[in-house]
Design goal:
6-stranded antiparallel β-sheet; 2 domains; alpha+beta; 301 residues; 19% strand
Length: 301
C-alpha cells in the first residue's frame, strides 16, 4: 500500500472511530488501579476486606470496597496471608480482575487490571441497559466507571431479566445498580404493587428496603385501618417507629382521628397510652399540643 493510500486509510479509520466511538465500547478496554486488603478472621471462615481504587478523571479517585470469601478468588489461599507475593483473580459476569502484589501479617496491597467482558455489556444493551448512554450529569470516564461498578457490585444479567419481567416502566443502568445493592427483585416489586402502591418507582423501592417496608408491614397497616395513599407517610411511620400497636394504644385513649403529623409528634415526644392516662388524671386537656407541652414541662405555666 502506497503512503498516499495508507494516509487515506488512516484518516478514514480515524473518522470511523470519531463517529462511532461514542456508541461502541472499545473491545480492548482495560481498567487499572491499586488494591489494598485486610483479613477479617473474627468469623469462623476468614473474609477478605478488599478495596480497589483508580484514577477517574482529573483529580478524581474512584474507590470501591467489599468483603469477599477467600474462595471467590482464583489463585489465593489463606496460607498466603502471613507473608507472600501473590497473583490471583476474580471473575464475574462483567469481567475479570487480575491482581498482583503481596501480603504480610494479614494485610495486602498491589495493583490490578480489570478487563470488561464485552459480551456482557452488549447483552445488557440489548435489554435496554446501555452502559454507554451518558447520564444527565455525564462526567469524564463515565463509561469506565459504570463498567467498573458493574464488576464491583457483581451485577448480573439474571437481575436485569428479573427486573424487566416486573413491568415497572423504563429502567436504566443506575436502577440496575440500585436493585443489586438493595436486593430489589421482581417478587418484591410485585408485592409492593399488590399492597396498594402500583406506581412506585425505583427510588421509592429503595426507601422501602432501607426502612424495611414490605408487603407484610403494609398489610398490618390496612388491617388496623391505617391505609394511606401517600407512600411518604408510610416512610415517616417507619422512620419514627410508629407501629400499629402504638397507634391502637393512643386510639384506645380517645385519639381516634390522628393524622400522620400528629402521630409523628406524639412519637417524637414519647406520648404513648400510659403517658396520656397520667396526663388525663392530672387534668391536661386531651389535645396533642397540650400533651406535648406537658411532656416538655411548660403546660399550665
Amino acid at each position: 500500500m502506497s503512503s498516499k493510500y495508507r494516509k487515506l486509510f488512516s484518516l478514514f479509520t480515524a473518522f470511523i472511530i470519531i463517529v462511532l466511538g461514542k456508541y461502541v465500547i472499545v473491545a480492548q478496554t482495560e481498567i487499572r488501579g491499586d488494591w489494598k486488603a485486610s483479613v477479617n478472621s473474627e468469623k469462623s471462615e476468614k473474609k477478605l476486606n478488599l478495596s480497589m481504587s483508580r484514577n477517574s478523571g482529573k483529580n478524581n479517585r474512584n474507590q470501591m470496597g467489599s468483603s469477599f470469601d477467600v474462595k471467590d478468588f482464583e489463585g489465593l489461599s489463606e496460607s498466603q496471608f502471613a507473608n507472600s507475593n501473590v497473583r490471583f483473580s476474580l471473575t464475574r459476569e462483567a469481567g475479570r480482575v487480575d491482581f498482583e502484589g503481596n501480603f504480610s501479617n494479614n494485610k495486602g496491597s498491589g495493583t490490578f487490571v480489570f478487563r470488561p467482558d464485552q459480551q456482557f455489556f452488549s447483552a445488557m444493551k440489548s435489554r435496554g441497559f446501555d452502559f454507554e448512554k451518558p447520564s444527565k450529569n455525564s462526567r469524564e470516564n463515565e463509561v469506565e466507571n459504570r463498567m467498573f461498578a458493574a464488576m464491583a457490585l457483581d451485577v448480573k444479567l439474571a437481575t436485569a431479566d428479573d427486573l424487566l419481567s416486573a413491568n415497572f416502566g423504563d429502567l436504566d443502568v443506575d436502577d440496575l445498580f440500585k436493585a443489586t445493592i438493595f436486593k430489589i427483585d421482581s417478587s418484591f416489586m410485585r408485592e409492593m404493587k399488590a399492597s396498594g402502591f402500583p406506581n412506585l418507582g425505583m427510588e421509592e423501592l429503595v426507601k422501602a428496603r432501607i426502612f424495611k417496608i414490605d408487603a407484610e408491614f403494609l398489610r398490618s397497616l390496612n388491617e388496623n385501618g391505617l391505609a394511606t395513599e401517600d407512600f411518604e407517610n408510610v416512610v415517616k411511620m417507619r422512620i419514627f417507629k410508629i407501629t400499629p400497636e402504638f397507634i391502637n394504644g393512643v386510639r384506645a385513649e380517645g385519639f381516634s382521628k390522628l393524622d400522620i403529623e400528629d402521630l409523628v409528634k406524639m412519637k417524637i415526644f414519647n406520648i404513648d397510652a400510659e403517658f396520656i392516662r397520667k396526663a388525663r388524671a392530672e387534668g391536661v386537656p386531651m389535645d396533642v399540643e397540650k400533651l406535648v407541652q406537658k411532656r416538655i414541662g411548660v403546660w399550665g405555666k
